[in-house]
Structures are given as C-alpha cells and as structure tokens.
Amino acid sequence: MTAKELRELSVSELELKLKELKEELFNLRFQLAINQLENPTRISAVKKDIARVSTVLRQNELQSAEA
Question: Nearest-CA neighbor of 52 among 18, 23, 9?
C-alpha cells in the first residue's frame, strides 16, 4: 500500500489498518519462530507498511493541531 493511498483513508480506517498490520506482524514472527514462514521478506514489508500508516497518522495529527 502506498502513502498516497493511505492519505485518502480516514483516521479511523488508518487506525484499523495499523491494528491489522500489527497483528499480521505478530503472526509472521510466530511463524518464523516455529519455522513455518514461507516468505521471510513479508516481515520487512509489513514493518514498512506499519511505518507508512504511522507516518500518515502523525501527519494528520499535526495538520489538525495547526488548524
């Protein structure tokens, strides 16, 4: 998911997306621990998605504080 797509979502949708991504990361780490992870690069992709969502949430927060 790109930052442009994320900026079009509402704050509640972003928070829901962040929660889902964190759950997915937890599950991926669990699979890695028990050697059942098929695609280890997915962990870094999910981390980057979490960072993107967090960044967009922070930007929205700062914009609302300025207004």
Answer: 18
Whole-model pTM?
Answer: 0.92
Answer CATH for 10-66 from 3.60.70.12, 3.40.30.10, 1.10.287.310, 2.60.40.10: 1.10.287.310
Give phi and psi for 17, each to the nearest 5.
-60, -40
Query: Is pLDDT of 55 > 90?
Result: yes
Comparing C-alpha atoms, which of 21, 13, 17 is closest to residue 42? 21
Q: How many C-beta atoms lie closer than 10 Å to residue 29's C-beta?
A: 12
Average pLDDT over residues 50-58: 97
